[in-house]
Amino acid sequence: MSTNSELFLQIYNLGGHNYLLDRIFIFGANELIFVTFIIIFLLIILGGPQERRAFLLIIVGLILAKLLVIFTHIIFFEPRPYITFNLIPLISHTPDAAFPSTHTTVMATVAAAYLFCKSKFSLLFLFLMFWVGFARIYVGVHYPLDILGGIIYGLFAILLTILLNKKIKFF
């Protein structure tokens, strides 16, 4: 068994023993991404120029990130761990491609944008990204490498957005 599978099983096996912990990670795996976008929209209104610039990076970065994920899912199919190990995940999920984690890609794109813009909210978004990533493993729908891949894709999408902006100047 690979280290990726072993680490997945260690994290997944934490679930189902503590109701509060399960609720925290189910929330992180499902709803936290929506809360993140509410925070982003609040920061457009209440934040400074760094937060508004981060929002512009996020818009373009998410488009690029989604294209990268779609392309990867077309050429590479990694089954979800709950399919491979015949487990019951803590959340319902379609048995589509696991690598990379789209949720983590989105969260990494957001966190990278705030980091690049030197926002005082960068650490908050990094924390939220790690919460979502860990939660997706905990509930049984992703391997650790799916999460790492999502982080790399999100960072790459923001770097690509920055490079494109230098060439095209769309904001």
Rough outline: globular
What is the β-strand count? 0
Total count of helical runs of at least 4 residues: 8
The termini sit apart by: 48 Å
Number of domains: 1
Short key terms for the protein model shown above:
single chain; 171 residues; mainly alpha
Short summary:
The protein is mainly α. It has one domain.
Would you kindly provide a written description of the structure presented here, covering whatever features stand out?
With 171 residues, the protein is mostly helical. The chain has one domain (3-168). The chain is built from eight helices and no strands. The protein has helices at 3-12, 19-30, 32-46, 49-75, 81-84, 102-116, 122-138, 144-168. The longest helix has 27 residues, at 49-75. The radius of gyration is 16 Å and the shape is globular. 39% of the residues are buried. The model has no long low-confidence stretch (mean pLDDT 96).
